[in-house]
Amino acid sequence: MTATERVLLIPKIENGFVIDHIPAGFGLEILRVVNQHHELDNVVITLGSNCKSRKLGRKDLLKFQTSQLPPRFLQHLSLICSGVTVKRIKNFEVEAKIVLEPPEIVEGFLACPNPNCITNHERGASTSFHLLNRSPNAFHCAYCERDFSMSELEAALPKR
Question: Cα 82 vs. chain centroid, distance in angstroms?
């Protein structure tokens, strides 16, 4: 095989979404996030791990054969792996492309790790975090006024 020949290791999808530019080795972490979103239970997903990338050197990618990705999943993804590219595929072509960045305000999605925060004691109290820093992601709780790195926060998803 010559250097100019290309081999397609992961088949193209006709319709769906491709999550691209995932840092190498992080694709499995995103699959763990997918398992927390029951709306994606019956979606066919293809994982490409440790693929060549001009931008990253090595990368992972995921292909979803579905007509929509849940907004809550995209928000979750933007928090744990900002900078990934989400491409909408229609008839084997890229129809739209966005780069995920964490939102300025995250309401009702993250659980506050401070045991004294009112959101952990009051029934129906919803969390609200404000983005302090994008690299690395850091957030400020609007209620207990403490700052947390993304690694300290967890998504407040319903248990299955």
Answer: 7
pTM for this predicted structure: 0.79
Tell me which DSSP letter residue 99 carries.
E
Mean pLDDT by 10 residues, the chain (160 residues): 54 92 90 90 91 84 94 89 92 95 90 93 90 88 94 68
CA gap 61, 32 in Å, rounded = 14
Give all domains of the chain, ordered by start, each with its CATH number.
15-99 (3.30.70.140), 105-155 (2.30.30.20)
CB under 8 Å to 122, separation ≥6 — which residues?
Answer: none
Strand pairing category for 110-111 and 44-53: unpaired
At 100 the three-state DSSP class reads coil
